[in-house]
UniProtKB/TrEMBL annotation:
Its EC number is 2.7.13.3. It is a multi-pass membrane protein. It catalyses: ATP + protein L-histidine = ADP + protein N-phospho-L-histidine. Residues 368-584 form the Histidine kinase domain. It comes from Anaerotalea alkaliphila. This is histidine kinase. Residues 241-320 form the PAS domain.
């Protein structure tokens, strides 16, 4: 642009100089012609006066006069008689010259008037400026003509014009230099503005123009810098809001995606892709149908857009691992600038597998509790009814019925106690009563408590305490309940052999093991062994007085202390439960 502007200014200056030169030429040429005419007229008047005073009559006298004065005024002087015959001439032999009567200026002078003419002289082969006037002679009115060669006039014109052209050239050079300086001064901030603007388009928003001027360019620079600052500030705010939005989206457990009316992704979080099992990390801008391969989700999104209303459904995702239940919701996105039609659809994907599992557990729990409560109550109700109908009359029968009622009532009491205990542990979150106790003492109490039950079945109870087991901060009753459930479970399912309780000091943890030589547990039952009311053999467990909650209570007590429990079993050889309780 600088070159174009400079070329334009130089062109304007050159055109102006050319026009000035042309007008100067014409003006100087016309002025010099006028001056030449005036000077010639003055010379004509002077020669006419000299001729009148001298009273000359012969060609020789005329020739002498014109030669004398022609050299002085540097002009050609010609004298002709009333017939147009040349009587004297400063440049040619008058005797050899033709009659000039019919020459334009001569004919006018013979008629008594002055006349000028510009004509090519065939005699001298040159352009001359002629001035002719009447000249009174003895025999009549002749002609006095003074001629000035145009070469002389042009020489004067060229001399003047050279001076003018020199001045114009110097002025043009100064004008061009001024134009160059002005162009440079004008274009430097413009070029810097352009470079900065291009740099900003490439993402360099911290660029500034450091030009200090007080004219309009300075105002433009200040406005541009202010615009850059505002743009940068808005960019910072947008980046901050985008970062906040991305943080919110990435921290959401729920998958979220916004899909435009053209079925292209506007934005999404990573959980959206993860929950749908997509390996890509970014599908922004991609077509919805190309990125997602799920017909249920297609139908949901299309239905939400078509009906312009909220839609939801649940689907089961089958993959290499366990099946997952996903809850899909689609809600039209509306903006104030899009009119009544939705801008797109907001899709939410939520993994409700655990929720549905918990609902199933709750439903099963309610069902199991109802069943477990109904069984002893039905038994009690039946025997009471039998007693009312006459069994009381038979003391032996009545005593047996009352013993059964007592057993069922005790079983009902145990079940209710276990349910309340399990509910209390689940809602605690953490143990509130903590005492640092020797776990060995609690273990011995448990062994003494269950020793008679083991002797009745002919089973040996063994307590093994590793040297160096340190006291553990806990609720003694809670640890006692854990040990009772494990050892009692081992006694129930062992027909012969022994049940061993071991206490060990592990790495930053207390380790408890209960090993029996009982019937063992099949591998297919191990994953569900700690569920509420789960029994490997329901009939056997119920006959032994089990509630199906003992091992679930053990698991929740271990988790109450941030610990864990696992089981190892071989059918026909026995089972080992291992509890790990970390030391804080």
């Amino acid at each position: 642009m600088r070159k174009k502007l400079l070329a334009l200014q130089i062109g304007v200056v050159a055109l102006a100089l050319l026009i000035a030169a042309l007008f100067s030429w014409r003006s100087l040429y016309a002025d010099l012609q006028t001056r030449t005419a005036n000077e010639t007229r003055t010379q004509m008047t002077l020669v006419q006066g000299i001729l009148r005073e001298a009273g000359m009559d012969s060609p020789e006298e005329y020739l002498s006069l014109v030669e004398n004065y022609g050299s002085k005024i540097n002009s050609r002087i010609t004298i002709m008689d009333p017939e147009g015959t040349v009587l004297a001439d400063t440049h040619m032999d008058y005797e050899k010259m033709e009659n000039h009567r019919w020459r334009e200026e001569v004919a006018a002078a013979l008629q008594g008037s002055e006349r000028t003419a510009l004509r090519y002289s065939a005699t001298l082969q040159e352009y001359y400026y002629y001035f002719a006037a009447p000249l009174e002679m003895g025999e009549g009115t002749g002609v006095l003509r003074i001629s000035v060669p145009m070469l002389q006039v042009r020489g004067l014109v060229w001399d003047l014009l050279n001076g003018v052209l020199l001045g114009i050239g110097v002025g043009g050079a100064v004008a061009m230099a001024t134009a160059w300086v002005f162009t440079r001064r004008f274009m430097e901030p413009v070029e810097e503005l352009t470079d900065t603007a291009l740099s900003i388009t490439q993402g360099n928003y911290d660029e500034k123009i450091r030009i200090r001027r007080t004219d309009e360019i300075g105002v433009l620079v200040d406005a541009f810098n202010q615009m850059t600052y505002t743009l940068n500030k808005n960019r910072w705010q947008l980046e901050e809001r985008n970062a906040e939005l991305q943080s919110v989206l990435s921290s959401m457990e729920t998958g979220m995606a916004a899909i435009g009316g053209d079925y292209r992704f506007i934005l999404h979080n990573q959980n959206f892709l993860r929950l749908l099992g997509l390996e890509e990390t970014d599908v922004t801008g991609q077509e919805f149908y190309a990125a997602i391969r799920n017909t249920d989700l297609f139908s949901l999104v299309e239905d939400a857009l078509d009906k312009e209303d909220y839609r939801n459904m649940e689907i089961t995702m089958k993959s290499g691992g366990p099946d997952r239940i996903l809850r899909l919701t689609a809600n039209p996105i509306r903006t104030t600038t899009q009119g009544p039609y939705p801008y797109g659809v907001l899709v939410m994907v939520e993994d409700v597998t655990q929720i549905r599992k918990l609902e199933n557990i709750r439903r099963d729990f309610v069902s199991n509790v109802t069943h477990e409560l109904r069984t002893p109550l039905t038994s009690i109700q039946g025997f009471v009814e039998a007693l009312r109908e006459g069994a009381m009359e038979d003391p032996a029968t009545a005593r047996r019925f009352l013993e059964i009622i007592e057993i069922e009532a005790e079983r009902l009491n145990t079940l209710i106690a276990d349910i309340l205990s399990l509910g209390e542990i689940e809602t605690m979150g953490r143990e509130k009563v903590l005492r640092i106790i020797p776990v060995e003492e609690v273990a011995r109490e448990v062994m003494d408590l269950l020793e008679q039950k083991a002797e009745d079945k002919g089973i040996e109870l063994v307590l093994e305490v590793q040297e160096g087991v340190r006291p553990y901060p806990c609720n003694p009753d809670r640890i006692k309940q854990l040990l009772i459930n494990l050892v009692d479970n081992g006694i129930k399912y062992t027909e012969q052999g022994r049940v061993t309780l071991r206490l060990k000091e592990g790495f930053k943890a207390l380790r408890i093991e209960v090993e029996d030589t009982g019937i063992g547990i099949g591998e297919e039952h191990l994953p569900r062994l700690f569920e509420r009311f789960y029994r490997v053999d329901r009939g056997r467990s119920r006959n032994m007085g089990g509630t199906g909650l003992g091992l679930s209570i053990v698991k929740h007590i271990a988790e109450l202390y941030k610990g864990s429990v696992r089981v190892e079993s071989t059918p026909g050889k026995g089972t080992t439960f291992k509890v790990k309780l970390p030391r804080s």
